[in-house]
Amino acid sequence: MSPSMLTLLLFVFSLSSNLAMAVKKGIQTPQTLSRGWGDDITWIQTYEEGLYNAKKRNKPLMVIHHLEDCQYCQALKKVFSENDEVQQLAKEKFIMLNLMHETSDNNLSPDGQYVPRIMFIDPSLTVRTDITGIYSNRQYTYEPEDIPLLLENMKKALILV
Predict the structure, then answer these.
(1) Same domain (yes/no): 99, 147
(2) Which region is the signal sequence (predicted)?
(3) pTM score > 0.85 for this model?
(4) d(C-alpha 102, C-alpha 109), whole Å
């Protein structure tokens, strides 16, 4: 066996054993910016980048506030990511951002800081406080059964103010 072949064999063995150890330990692969909300959607990394792109590309910005350990966020994420119409609209017509922390813009929390919360900002950088869910105590939250309303609100957000 040639030295280069032996080197290659050792490399492959070492790589596979490291991979097996990672799988055994339950090490997760790094998350994409989608964080499970839709891997086919182009996600923006920061709020400032979202505002810039909304204005530049003349598309509304959709901001999803959520937390990984929130059962309500997880339930909404599941139906959001599985709904083809929501996914297509988000992918084609919106600048998309999901945040797991608050921004410095208090306009994104007009009725408090809670999750899940979905806000729309039009290309003129106006927060669309007129586009709400059905709950009076958390106007910008949606539950899994509210996906038809969220879809309707996404379409409303496309009509520029």
Answers:
(1) yes
(2) 1-22
(3) no
(4) 9
